Amino acid sequence: xxxxxxxxLDAITAIGAVLLGYGVYSRNQQRRKAKKTGSTTSGGTTxxxxxxxxxxxxxxxxxxxxxxxxxxxxxxxxAEPRFRSxxxxxxxxxGGDVARAKAEGLLDPVGITxxxxxxxxxxxxxxxxxxDDGTALGxxxxxxxxxxxxxxxxxxxxxxLFSTIYEGVVAAIAVLEETGDPARALLFPV
Amino acid sequence: MxxxxxxxxxxxxxxxxxxxxxxxxxxxxxxxTRAQAAETGDPNLRVARMYSIVDLIGNLLNEITSxxxxxxxxxEGLAGFDDDLAGxxxxxxxxxxxxxxxxEPPPPTEWTEQQWTDFETLIExxxxxxxxxxxxERWEIHDVAPPCEGPDLLLALQxxxxxxxxxxxxxxxxxxxxxxxxxxxxxxxxxxxxxxRAAGKAIAxxxxxxxxxxxxxxxxxxxxxxxxxxxxxxVAAVLGAGGLVWWKTKKGK
Lengths: 190, 253
Description:
By secondary structure, chain A is mostly helical. Chain A has helices spanning 4-7, 10-13, 15-21, 72-93, 98-103, 109-116, 156-179, and strands at 41-42, 60-61, 68-69, 129-130, 136-137. Chain A has a two-stranded antiparallel ribbon. Chain A has a two-stranded antiparallel sheet with strand order 4-5.
């Protein structure tokens, strides 16, 4: 049987190193830039009984497309799994070659952003504008301030939502490039 | 053996390493350190150890989230798991990590009485020392993060263990598909749906068993028994980093 000291956490047993770390410790933390539209608590169970079935928690989109909230559970149930499956597919198709996956467009952050948010924005129109010449403008090329321009999209909050996911995707892909490990490439690490 | 090692985390996942025992031993060592810090007059020791635990929880959360992203079968059984994980992530993101970083506090030797009180009630208690009942009674920052669900270090370890259970059921489910290649699509979908529901129930059952096992290590005192551990957390909207600073400003701290 393991002794108490053997069982205890590394962080405790290796405290000497941590002492050095406290106060000077820093790391680049990818923080969520989720827009704050309120701090509410909803749903969940309160009686101590877990439900046997679960409906996935949705993104909360304002009726007029002017606001959104991103529940942590939506990130866990929808965003991260979708993103991870794309990364795994890309790695599988390229034999783990991140550079090749990028070159082949398998890690295009704009495309990935659309996939993560696919059918997640309720009745709001997808932020994409098809031009007469057959091309299209993506959310990263749209603006919401000057109507009548070809790149106009009327819902700035939705553009903000796409940008938030996009930033997470870009940061996660950078982690993937650095580590080569999809498991470490999270959209919203803590 | 060190939890920081991949080997130990695998042992937690597989159940080889007893999560409750690991937590209890860690807590005992922390209390020894705290006593030592008081004796020697070196508060850095106490704070640094807690900081290391917070950092560890962050690493565990990222690992658990990553594993969760791979679990796509039998999700019915993950309802409580997802709520627990979401709540812990919010506490970490909005409270535990910012406490040490936003803004970075002065050295513990210069802390005021209020800073020590905050350390005890916002960090030390909910992460390591309080049971569920105490958490719920003493939690005063509902605007910042959902109340703790027992000691959060224990919850993090429990969630890592639960990913092991869920993955095991998922693997069994996938393995059971083989041999059904001759089914029509309709038959397959029905078969698949039945299996998914069965896996969901099995995962939920397996996780409940973990909760009961761990229950012996914590005192609930709420009449709910061990089943109460880690359960029943609502879904909180994202408040985002800076919540702690906001709360302190609001409270005039």
